[in-house]
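Q: Hi! First time asking for a complex rather than a single chain. Here are the components, and I think there are two in total. Is that enough to go on?
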Amino acid sequence: MSKQDMIINPLPMRTWNRLKMNEATLSGVSPEGSLAIETNLPQTAPDPATAARMESIPGGAGSAVDRLAEEAGPDVFFLKGTGKEPQEPAILTLRHAGSRQTMNRIFLETPEDTEMTVYLDLGSEEGAQGLAILQTKAYLAKHSTLRLVQIGHTGRGVDVLSDIGARCEEGARFELVQLFLGGNRTWSGYETDLLGDESSCKTYIGYHLKEEQSLDMNYVARHHGRRSDSLILAAGALSDRSRKLFRGTLDFIKGGKTATGAEKEEVLLMNDAVVNQTIPLILCGEEDVAGSHGATIGKADEEVLFYLTSRGISKENAYAMLAKAKLDGALAHVVSPELKEMTQKAIEEFYGQAE
Amino acid sequence: MKEKTFVDDINRSVYDIKDTEKDAYRIRQGLTEEIVRKISEEKHDPAWMLEFRLKSLEIYNELQVPDWGPSIDGLNMDNIATYVRANTSMKGTWEEVPEDIKETFERLGIPKAERESLAGVGAQYDSELVYHNVRKEVEDQGVIYTDFESALVGEYADMVREHFMKLVPPTDHKFAALHGAVWSGGSFVYVPPGVKVSIPLQSYFRLNARGAGQFEHTLIIVDEGADLHFIEGCSAPKYNVANLHAGCMELYVRKGAKLRYSTIENWSKNMYNLNTKRAIVEEGGTMEWVSGSFGSHVSYLYPMTILNGAGSHTEFTGITFAGEGQTLDTGLKVVHNGPNTSSFVNTRSISKSGGCATTRSSIVVNPTAKGSKSSVSCESLMIDDISRSDTIPAMDIRTDDADIGHEASIGRISDEAVYYLMSRGLAETEAKALIVSGFADQVSKELPLEYAVEMNNLIRLEMVGSIG
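A: Yes, that's all I need. Here is the structure of the assembled complex.
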């Protein structure tokens, strides 16, 4: 397919253009083929109705990614929950290799009263370059639960676009833990439509960006259902000349009475050359809701640094500990012991501490 | 019966007085080079100002309307008269002001406020000031408070030219360019070094003419170590056609100086309020904004502070009340350039009866602003389920040596609080009005008493009929 420029991660309500936060542009996109997915569970093909339903779920990266998928026709990996946990989590491993652009689509469905846990591991082989596009759509039927752990640890030559869209029916719960531990430029979109009453989504994001890495995020929780509940918690550290833009939106749609939503962001700034941009929106068309946002952005607390260095820890290691604590915060929300161990290992590898 | 009591407390008809435009000069509607030249001629502009106006018109024609804010499709410049002048010159005593205009300002309480609590007053009626006066003791301190046209050609002409639309250049946005092309009226204030003006100055802007625009320019320079409180009030009668306000305020706060700029904006609900306010603060200076936005059909209003000097500081305290037919997009911008600068922002918005309140902000901390701190708090209150309230705060931090905190919340009036007050004998309307007044208290307590009373009366007026 021909190369195209895409407008992605659109802010749900625009603001001053000179801030350059309204959207991101991804240039020269032309995926050819998909990455092979290694998995411990057999996949099935979605029937046409299921596929159509999945495709209709909006993702946070915007409709341009859906149009791209229509044109590029990537492989679709479909997983359907079968029962209540505890059961074996699904582990999906994708490895980017060579120098190319790829696109994968993953459809996840949790039927009524089922639970499913999925570990999505996107890495790369040494020296890999190019762009990996990963689109995940999830449909959560009534009273079902989906736990998704997504780890991105591609090499520095690989750009990543991750797009997640989820739709939750009555009483459904979507829990996402996302760690960004690699890549060059990363764009991450996420949108959950809390359609059903008492549906909920909880999102825990951890990142530590180094050198010239960038992370551009657009996270949206749309509250349609009554008593729906959302939490978006993003915590991370910026080193060297890295850049991060966090767009977070709580959208309370009229009719979603007594819905509650919260966004929290913590950013540790570790170098004078970093760029941190944050724009947390609360959009409200319903009176009877409670939404909140809180952000703390700054350098390491001098007292904490003094305490650590007075215990013989070098300043460099003390900073690394504080940055790692941001990732550990997200790690704490991985429920499965097996996946927690895998995630822990990925974090340790990131900090070069693996056995 | 209780509602009747509230209406009697403050009668909206005070703001809706319409004077006939007899003998007034009204330029024809639209925006063309010919019209701009005619305004310049009517105002006896110096040559450089005509050139500036024409250049601004060029820029206006090149720039697009914003693609990010509320719709201003109902505003057609072809239907707006950009210059309307009452048949009077500026007077120095109220007795000399034509009777009908004087009566309007008296009903608005301006002469009374001047007598009781102000150091000086400028009263603009449509495109020109009709009254300007400053107390002798303030004048004796060397404070200059004059209409802008006089300043443009008088003793301070060079100072005015040096600062005019330098902080808000016409290229800033389309309506700044419009302002540059057709501005008229406004005030020039200069407070000499070390002078503390103990009681406030006030400018009041009244737009009486139907289908007209008001484009006053306010330039305030508070020199080193000086201190000033400037109050701005505005109102207009309601018409069934669009009116436009695109004023511009440029505020210079020199080293160690302090300026408080308070606004109670109560434009009529057919007004497009596309106003630009900007301050630049030097070392150790303080800029305080107190802003109450109650009127207008559509507002774009974001006072901006540039903290250029080391240790400079700004505080913004604002409340927006969006009622039926109103889309009020308000907020603020702060740019931290100097080291150890600080900003403290506290905004509250209330929306009811289908009104839409959007709080939009931008905090930028540049690499030079090491050791800077910013704290932003936005709270929004929804009174019913047919209104909207949106919060869009942006932060752009480009140094690690900064401490930035932001919090926002949105919610409704607590049923428990209403129940409590009703159990003490208050009607539901009274209870909610009391709670909303309490919500707005952090703004009203920052205002001089008379203005706090007016603000609370406006809230009570807006709250009448909000139940059921």
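A: The CA atoms of residues 55 and 66 of chain A lie 7 Å apart. Let me know if you'd like any chain examined more closely.
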